[in-house]
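hey m, so remember when u said the tokens were messed up on ur end? i reran from scratch. heres the input so u can diff it against urs
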Amino acid sequence: MSKISVLVVDDAAFIRDLVKKCLRNYFPGIRTEDAINGKKAQAMLAKEAFDLVLCDWEMPEMSGLELLTWCREQDNLKTMPFVMVTSRGDKENVVQAIQAGVSGYVSKPFTNEQLLTKVKQALNKVGKLDALMNGAPTKMNSAFGNDSLSALTGGKAAVVAAPAPAAAPSRGLLSSPPVKAPVAASAPASGRGQGQLRLPSGIQQCVIKALSIKEALLVVKRTDTLPQVLDSAVLDLEQGDNAEVARLNGYLHAIVAFEPKPDSDWLQLTFRFVDQDAQKLDYISRLIARGTAQKHFVPGA
């Protein structure tokens, strides 16, 4: 039985549960604990030893970068593997994390393979991989048949390549700020502007038809690879003259044809937010208050 212990830090319970289940399914006997933000994680790390931290960046009270910086200032935590699991993929964010001493970087949305690869790489560097692999399936794919994270990502690898710093980050969305491609001229009329939806299968431009504090109603162009209900995703929203960008973590709650015909060129997606970060919630509230939409909608209606 593995004696490896992992601390999962994220303000979204949805993400924490996915990560923990993925690890438990692949590494029998692994011990997983979780914390809702950096402050809670800091208190736990001060009391007990962990072999690895998997941490979100944007969280209330203390961010992942602040927690990482604090860890590297502690004698007993200087070499502890610390992997960022975040939707922040801009080059400057990656550089910040590397300079602060991050061990690895996983971009949301991620696949099981990406997460497990980074966990194995981080623990291999400190000589703890053998302990982790005791009792693990002989093939990585055997862990992906029925677990929730596989279902939420569709079991597909992201198609956007990562930069290649010394830590050899996994493939993800780490290269540069989101590329802005215009939605086709024939797209349905925009209610709240446009955004970019990052799915495990790739990136799709979208029209934001309606927005509430809990979810967004999106319209996307139908492609050969259809999104799936419960797909984990990141919605990039840019609004205002200062090009303010919010990266909102969530999942696809519902998918329907936008047009009343079987060969509809457009899909309507209900994207539910899972972030509890106060800044992100404030950003959504300000978008709603700006009146950039023609109408509101009732979540779950």
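this time it looks ok to me. The first strand starts at residue 5 and ends at 9. if urs says something different then somethings off w ur setup not the seq
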